[in-house]
Amino acid sequence: MDNIEEVLKQIVADQLGRNVDEIDISHELVNDLGGDSLDAVEITVSIEEEFGIKILDSEYVDIKSLEEYADLIKAKLEK
Predict the structure, then answer these.
(1) 14, 21, 32, 36: which one is catalytic?
(2) 70 Cβ partners below 8 Å, 6+ apart?
(3) Which residues touch 35 (CB under 8 Å, ≥6 apart)?
(4) Where are the domains of the chain?
(5) Rounded to whole angstroms, what are the CA distances from 18 to 6, 12, 43, 61?
(6) What is the DSSP string of the chain?
(7) Residue 71 designated active-site
(8) Global pTM value
(9) How does pLDDT run along the chain (79 residues), one tens digit per residue?
(10) Which CATH class for the 3-78 domain?
């Protein structure tokens, strides 16, 4: 698992008050981890700060799994 995924898991764990070992990259924020839309906003802001990227509302609003977040981060970093 590469560093982006590990950092993402840590961001999500911090936001949701969970142990990072409980989080898998395949988990869905809402269905698997009990997050909500406010958590998604906070996670997105943390991702932007951590990776120095800008994520538009339209880009993250339909994201469900952490893997989808990781793919978006990777795409942004490649630009």
Answers:
(1) 36
(2) 4, 5, 8, 25
(3) 12, 15, 16, 29, 43
(4) 3-78
(5) 14, 8, 14, 23
(6) --HHHHHHHHHHHHHHT--GGG--TT-BTTTTT---HHHHHHHHHHHHHHHT----HHHHTT--BHHHHHHHHHHHHH-
(7) no
(8) 0.92
(9) 469 999 999 999 999 999 999 999 999 999 999 999 999 999 999 999 999 999 999 998 899 999 999 999 999 999 8
(10) mainly alpha
For residue 40, CA distances in Å to 1, 26, 63, 67, 79 come to: 22, 16, 9, 14, 23
Sequence letter at residue 8: L
